Amino acid sequence: MYLKSVKARGFKSFARPVEFAFEPGITVVVGPNGSGKSNIADAVVWAMGEQSPSAVRGATMQDVIFSGSDQMAPSGMAEVELVFDNSCGTIPLDFSEVMISRRLYRDGDGQYFINKSGCRLIDVGELLSDAGLGRDSHSIISQGKVDAVLEGRPTERRAHIEEAA
Amino acid sequence: MYLKSVKARGFKSFARPVEFAFEPGITVVVGPNGSGKSNIADAVVWAMGEQSPSAVRGATMQDVIFSGSDQMAPSGMAEVELVFDNSCGTIPLDFSEVMISRRLYRDGDGQYFINKSGCRLIDVGELLSDAGLGRDSHSIISQGKVDAVLEGRPTERRAHIEEAA
Amino acid sequence: IESTFNATFEAVQQNFSEVVSTLFPGGEGRLTLVKPETDGADGVREDGGGGTDDGGGVMTEEEEEDAAAGISIDQRGIEISVKPARKTVRSLSLFSGGERSLVAIAFLFAIFLARPAPFYILDEVEAALDDTNIDRLLIMLRSFQDRTQFIVITHQKRTMEVADTLYGVSMGADGTSKILSRRMNGDDAELSGVETIGD
Amino acid sequence: IESTFNATFEAVQQNFSEVVSTLFPGGEGRLTLVKPETDGADGVREDGGGGTDDGGGVMTEEEEEDAAAGISIDQRGIEISVKPARKTVRSLSLFSGGERSLVAIAFLFAIFLARPAPFYILDEVEAALDDTNIDRLLIMLRSFQDRTQFIVITHQKRTMEVADTLYGVSMGADGTSKILSRRMNGDDAELSGVETIGD
Ligand SMILES: Nc1ncnc2c1ncn2[C@@H]1O[C@H](COP(=O)(O)OP(=O)(O)OP(=O)(O)O)[C@@H](O)[C@H]1O
Ligand SMILES: Nc1ncnc2c1ncn2[C@@H]1O[C@H](COP(=O)(O)OP(=O)(O)OP(=O)(O)O)[C@@H](O)[C@H]1O
Ligand SMILES: [Mg+2]
Ligand SMILES: [Mg+2]
């Protein structure tokens, strides 16, 4: 079970479609300040169903839609697609690859898809839970947040273990 | 007007007396993780009269007293002494050097000194204010705190300018 | 759920001690279950025992049994205690920036070793670490790479060394992000529409 | 006090724009006085105009005069707005880690240029910056060094380059900190009782 690819379009600084293909093992992403590295992490967190705009550094959820540059008009929609390798059968679906996608339009209208077929947020949550990925994304450590686990109360730290358990 | 030296004894990891001599211009302090670099900044903030233990990363003010190591017993007192060059006469005292010191004992008893003569916290505050150093140490940017000025409300940012004004 | 938590916690406890001795050579680390804070504070002021970050005191064996008998155990929090080599145990708030990062990373890895998630994304977790500690972290990451997938975001050259796959991203002249290059195990694969580095 | 604030603020405003154009080449920055937030929120949700961090909207000339006439101006907050090259203006929360550090540093330097304090202590302010931006910061620091004293704490080699005086600190075998070395303008001064580096 691993994350095979991340596609983004109209998501934050990824106005044009991009695709990252990942392998098992260690992938390192480098680039200058402001180039879009953390936006990849945001894309994954967001596609997994994140409901809080501040978790992707926005004030409203529409903040994740490409808002334009000097040379390019704003996008009308943000879309991210994650493909998981499921050859180990961890997700109880009869597919060797499982795709999760999410869209958001400027008017706030949004959709979720599993294998390109529309679904509800709760379906995405259950699928991820089967995959061993909690809804609170404890496996994604955001920039500047590595200390966060030390700052919470001892009871908050429980959540990390409960999610994994 | 510049900071000429910082002496510390029994303060955090500086169990034995140390003295840093500073010049005008740029001084760079380097060293491995946990070697004591940020403790120097804490020593300066503390000697200037900081009242909040959390500003020097402690839960109680006694946390700044050297609490012992495998090889060395805890100290009974923390002491920091700052010497300012006053040849420009910025501080209205007839001295070319002005010394501020602070002591704290395990029982919580503490003292302030100007030129080795006991004084009150408020005297230290007034002297620093004459020197152009506000009580809130806006000229000391602590580790991990550089973003703090962006996170406050717009009205909190005023304080930075009001202190300088 | 309760016994799952306890079983998981025991494994995490074990792992934490081991990971700390690797990231803090000569040091020791320990996780403990503690009563929840009762005063509504963030727990810092209840630091009775020293060498721990906060939390309402450690439960004795008897107390644990009492709790098991009637009181809800699953309100207990997790107290983190670390003693670096040569230093005495003290509140985590007094630890240096780099030391705190290492403790947090140790906690995360301890959970990972007990119950690996399919993938982890680490965004600049080594920002506060000096080169020696970055190396310790990278050696550890390498030892895990057969078990789980890691996506590591960094601006440090040193970290690039452990990549099986390396992606470069860049802000284009048109104000949008693009993939500049991708290298897998030594082969460079330049992607179409890519400008030269250092545009 | 009020006119001192206004005079200072105008100088800071001017400096901020200049510093931003240096730290963000091709970019622009602006400070604005804004009405205090009335809803008790931290202001983020009132982000009406885009390209600003938060804050209740910009006052017009007329509003400023009204305020001068009767309403307390000195409750107004400071709104920070930055447009990096090629990008459009947006909320500061969406800026990258390095970009946010640069904006904060620009604000600090803008105040410094208006009313220098006798000394500044900067503790690892460049942690999120890539090498290019560290260089911009260091060039700027160097240009200030005749005006004020800077004590810069870092674990980055690059930053060591601008030192007039360089101190090395180290944790000794006895678990206490010691000064390992001091170098001033090229002369090495080893201090007594010092062990060799790399203990
Ligand atoms: N909705 C959006 N539309 C367009 N650009 C956006 C949007 N949201 C964020 N951005 C831009 O994306 C860039 C941030 O990218 P990101 O945080 O991924 O950078 P980074 O590569 O992680 O940099 P650093 O090394 O400094 O952390 C910022 O310049 C920001 O302005
Ligand atoms: N009261 C105390 N007694 C003894 N040691 C202390 C005390 N308070 C803090 N320390 C120790 O001082 C060390 C922290 O030093 P400091 O924060 O200055 O490190 P640093 O050089 O800034 O490291 P980094 O590069 O990781 O930021 C810690 O190891 C901490 O345990
Ligand atoms: Mg980033
Ligand atoms: Mg430090």
Briefly say what this structure is.
The complex is a heterotetramer, with 2 copies of chain A (165 residues) and 2 copies of chain C (199 residues). Chain A has 4 helices and 8 strands, in the order βββαββββαβαα.
Number of strands of chain A: 8
Give the amount of beta strand of chain A, in percent.
25-35%
Indicate the multimeric state.
heterotetramer
Catalogue the unreliable spans of chain C: 39-57, 190-199
Shape of chain A: globular
- Tell me the structural class of chain A: alpha+beta
Q: How is this structure best described in words?
A:
The complex is a heterotetramer, with two copies of chain A (165 residues) and two copies of chain C (199 residues). Helices cover 22% and strands 27% of the residues of chain A. By secondary structure, chain A is of the alpha+beta class. In chain A, strands 2-1-4-5-6-7 form a six-stranded antiparallel sheet. The mean pLDDT of chain A is 94. With 199 residues, chain C is an alpha+beta fold. Chain C is 34% helix and 21% strand. Chain C has helices at 2-23, 61-69, 97-114, 131-144, 157-160, and strands spanning 28-34, 77-83, 119-123, 149-153, 165-171, 177-184, 187-189. In chain C, helix 4 (131-144) links the parallel strand 3 (119-123) and strand 4 (149-153). Chain C is globular and about 55 Å long. At the A-C interface, strand 2, strand 3, helix 1, strand 8 and helix 3 of A face helix 1, strand 2, helix 3, strand 3 and strand 4 of C. The structure holds adenosine-5'-triphosphate (ATP) (2 copies) and magnesium ion (2 copies). One magnesium ion binds at residues 37-38, 143 of chain A.
